[in-house]
Amino acid sequence: MYFTDRGLEELESRRGQEEFTFSWLTARLRTFVDLNPTYETAIDRLATYLARDDEDDE
To answer: What is this structure's pTM?
Structure first.
């Protein structure tokens, strides 16, 4: 198990039944980066990964 799995498991257990928009998600990620600028590169990579995730389906 990776260290990040704990956070992902907590996220799923607390909010797994909720629905959200990508607008809400991007707003939350922007707020996170504003509060934690050292994670800017990681958040940018995650956002790019999520945005392009379906490119392999073609």
So the answer is: 0.75
